[in-house]
Please model this.
Amino acid sequence: DAKTTQPNSMESNEEEPVHLPCNHSTISGTDYIHWYRQLPSQGPEYVIHGLTSNVNNRMASLAIAEDRKSSTLILHRATLRDAAVYYCILRGYSGAGSYQLTFGKGTKLSVIP
Amino acid sequence: NAGVTQTPKFRILKIGQSMTLQCAQDMNHNYMYWYRQDPGMGLKLIYYSVGAGITDKGEVPNGYNVSRSTTEDFPLRLELAAPSQTSVYFCASSSIGVTADTQYFGPGTRLTVL
Model:
């Protein structure tokens, strides 16, 4: 799978929007962009994914650059519960039928009350 | 639905001991996965299964074995525990395993090998 680059950490004030960036300059045309997050002492949970167009769901929005070399996860109003490590993952067929998720270190988001 | 469940939550093993980490899902998912997460790091895939009776190695399979006799269960076996296997283990499942699919994770098993 192609590599992603994320900042190690970010801070946000509670109830303000948060923009979490991800660079993936070697993305292939068939790679989906997935975001997962991991709250303290819990397993990862799915947030959102997209291929080319911007996507919205109840948790967040995903903005994908036109050239697909970067994307941004947008939390519209950060709450204390959003404090977590956010992983940007490119999902592609590995050739061995694994369809695995390849996790990097992610971005640790801190939310300030 | 309980989703993905894992037992035990915590375990301390001595070097050379064996144990089985249990994982079960009630979502009728065909694909199941075992990951490990070392402190401060992302998750790494140990083994995965595309259906009952079919398993394959992931990125870090050495020291582990798996079996998949039913759709619901995917146990992970450690035969000779080593300190390098101290980690948090997560089981996950997904319905179809294609690139747009979502994986659902269990709460994890924290294993310490002394």
The mean pLDDT of chain A is 90. The CA atoms of residues 30 and 43 of chain A lie 27 Å apart.
